[in-house]
Amino acid sequence: MALWRAYQRALTVHPWKVQVLTAGSLMGLGDIISQQLVEKRGLRGHQTGRTLTMAFLGCGFVGPVVGGWYRVLDRLIPGTAKADALKKMLLDQGGLCPMFSRLFPPTSRSTQWPVSPGQLGQAPADPDALLTNYYLWPAVQLANFYLVPLHYRLAVVQCVAVIWNSYLSWKAHRL
């Protein structure tokens, strides 16, 4: 409980920084889970650069984009009634998700260390990731927009996303 209270205090004092660092940390954790539990690489086969890439993407891309998106949604559709939450979820799943699914695989591969010249944007989008998204995220986002205050939404999504990030990392690095 002390850790949760410390997190809440930090979120109150530095909301943007804490949200972005939370996204990066949980994306890195998702990659560790992918490499160790799904791919069974073991410690010697673990690709540290890949984990750092996923954490970097969480801090530099996912956290700012998704956190900013939630703010935009709350301005476009103020309120937390069921109808408001449904509208936000539909905009999220119909607007951000297709774009995000298109950008994530090439971005995650293009930021691998070391970076090859001209690597950005060469990888094709994976439509399977978008379709798989629709099995999980509409329900999560509906609950998120209806039940969770704005400043906790990114954290809630990133907690669910630990498993999703494992999947995305696995998909992005097996293509």
UniProtKB/TrEMBL annotation:
The keyword Glycosyltransferase does not apply. The chain crosses the membrane at residues 51-70. InterPro entries: Mpv17_PMP22 (IPR007248). It is found in: Membrane. Its main location: membrane. Pfam families: Mpv17_PMP22. Belongs to the peroxisomal membrane protein PXMP2/4 family. This is Mitochondrial inner membrane protein Mpv17. It is a multi-pass membrane protein. Keywords: Membrane, Transmembrane, Transmembrane helix. One of its GO terms (cellular component) is membrane.
